[in-house]
Amino acid sequence: MSVIKSYSASGPKARVIPTNIERRPVGPNDVQIAIEHCGVCHTDIHFVNNDWGMTNYPVVPGHEIVGRVTEVGSSVKNFKAGDRAAIGCLVDSCGVCVNCEKGLEQYCLNGFTATYNSETTDPGGFTYGGYSTSVVAKESFILSIPDNLKGPGVAPLLCAGITTYSPLRNWNISPGQKVGVIGLGGLGHMGVKFGRALGAQVTMITSSEQKGEDARMLGAHEVLLSTSANALAKEAGSFDFLLNTIPVDHDLTPFLELLKTDGAMCVVGAVEPLSKVNAAQLIFGRRSLTGSLIGGIAETQEMLNFCGGNDILSEVEVIRMDGINEAFERMRKSDVKYRFVIDLATLS
Length: 348
Ligand SMILES: NC(=O)c1ccc[n+]([C@@H]2O[C@H](COP(=O)([O-])OP(=O)(O)OC[C@H]3O[C@@H](n4cnc5c(N)ncnc54)[C@H](OP(=O)(O)O)[C@@H]3O)[C@@H](O)[C@H]2O)c1
Ligand SMILES: [Zn+2]
Ligand SMILES: [Zn+2]
Prior knowledge:
Bound molecules: NADP nicotinamide-adenine-dinucleotide phosphate, zinc ion
Oligomer: single chain
Number of domains: 2
Distance between the termini: 18 Å
């Protein structure tokens, strides 16, 4: 057992503050990673706030973890001390259900163990995330980082990356298709990059007029202002696929109207009841409304390799660990270009 430094929140209105936590000793199948960078996902804010009513306090957020291996267990085969390694949103699953067998650990029928806030036999009783100096996890949930992907822009691939890559792949996004990415934040900017890399015609659909130029720099062919009913009306019925990253409940009506017959909108952002869905929009047009949760371990590795092959990194603002509360505040105002990443050297 080792006591390490972390940042945690003790309740829904609490600031995220320095806290010592215990990590389990390295078991035969475990890898210990000294964390260098951890991305700040909007999910971290939802958990600190207890927006989804499932937070176990104190919560140590962080599931976009990149660092160096410091120790491996006796049965570990693919990692050694000194290797670069990463952890995303999952650290365990049952391994035997039909979904786990298909590599869909995120849909484990017996419940996956998330990188933070999940029940565990580890010290503390709940998993603790990457707002900390080190982490211990099973080798089978550790990812390898292609050599050409360097620096803090790697970390957000572990959640924002896989959460956008997985649905684009699952719905077979390919050249010639028209794809809209709704919300230009951490997930959205990765969605634009992947949509572009997969050959689609990509439109950034944003509520922030000033983000248009950035959206084009990130690879968007077009920019559509979601606050303009006129602009949306002109694009009605033209999209094959929409990836919706808006983090809160909102009216889906204007977005569903954008879909072609047989088009699909995949909601990845608002993990909560959506108050306004008009089924008539689905029925007249055979449109689909669907969702997607992160991605499995094999697909996350595939995504990292795809990023390596296509030189894809996240656009980041690096912050100190003690800047986390200010970063949350800015994210609440949609003011981040386009992912905060914590430099964990500022915690040790
Ligand atoms: N499904 C999954 O597996 C999964 C994985 C990770 C995260 N998530 C969830 O995905 C959501 C987005 O995460 P993120 O880290 O990308 O967040 P983020 O960086 O804060 O970006 C969200 C973006 O959505 C837009 N937005 C925010 N509030 C809005 C509102 N009230 N109405 C319309 N648009 C709004 C803004 O873009 P514009 O300024 O361009 O409008 C904002 O930049 C969160 O709820 C998170 O919990 C889900
Ligand atoms: Zn996340
Ligand atoms: Zn399972």
